[in-house]
Known about the structure:
alpha/beta; Glutaredoxin; 4 helices; 7 strands; disordered N terminus
Amino acid sequence: xxxxxxxxxxxxxxxxxxxxxxxxxxxxKNPSCGCCGAWAKHLQNAGFSRPQSHAATDMSTARRALGMxxxxxxxxxxxxxxxxxxxxxxxxxxxxxxxxxxxxxGLAVPGMPMGSPGxxxxxxxxxxxxxxxxxxxxxxxxxxxxx
Length: 147
């Protein structure tokens, strides 16, 4: 019994140390957007450090400058490592992207689907996280069914 209690703090420290290896997320968003802040909180709750936030009043220009195709647009664009993230991408999908290292631009959740991280509240809907390939095309990376 005492061994279990001794082991619990070590497991906690190991999980914290594992999350410290996650790269910093840099987010470009409209300063008045509240759901972007909720997405940032979702990332923090999943072990990422607090995303660095930069104000971008013209998201189309910011998105284009970063290299994310406009057709996958959402309310914010972020960078993590060498990848771009568009919209309310779940932290689990980002962690998978970083583990698998595909040759791609990054991930996108186009629009602002209800039930995606930061868009909790109304009636949740099924949505897909897309893997955006370097030629601008996309394929489904992860399907998120309605709970």
